[in-house]
Write a structure and sequence with these properties.
- By secondary structure, the protein is α+β, with helices and mostly antiparallel strands.
- Helices cover about 20% and strands about 15% of the residues.
- The protein contains 2 helices and 3 strands; from the N terminus they run ααβββ.
Length: about 100
């Protein structure tokens, strides 16, 4: 009977349920010491603070640094646009690294 189901649902909704055992306390977030330099990226101070002063730097030196919007020495040129080649039933686009065929 629909009335009995509505009453049973209302009874369930009104039940006091203790969920305190499900609460998780993560404590406070620890303070983190900020050790990065405030120098501009790619400046001598920044390179020294962030890389040169590190113990690992002599074993894994970094590449040339280029500030945002500039091109580092040895940067590859952009990939050229793909050129279409017609092969009968499809047009094939090739960048020499990937191929895409479109049915005609």
């Amino acid at each position: 009977d629909a009335t009995d189901k509505r009453e049973a649902l209302q009874t369930c909704k009104e039940l006091p349920i203790d969920v305190s055992h499900l609460e998780i306390s993560f404590g406070l977030v620890p303070e983190v010491a900020v050790t990065c330099s405030q120098a501009q990226p790619c400046s001598e101070k920044w390179l020294s603070d962030e890389y040169g002063a590190k113990a690992w730097h002599s074993r894994a030196p970094t590449a040339a640094c280029a500030a945002c919007g500039t091109k580092a020495a040895g940067t590859l040129p952009p990939t050229p646009a793909p050129t279409p080649i017609s092969v009968g039933v499809a047009t094939v686009y090739s960048t020499h690294a990937a191929f895409m065929a479109l049915n005609k």
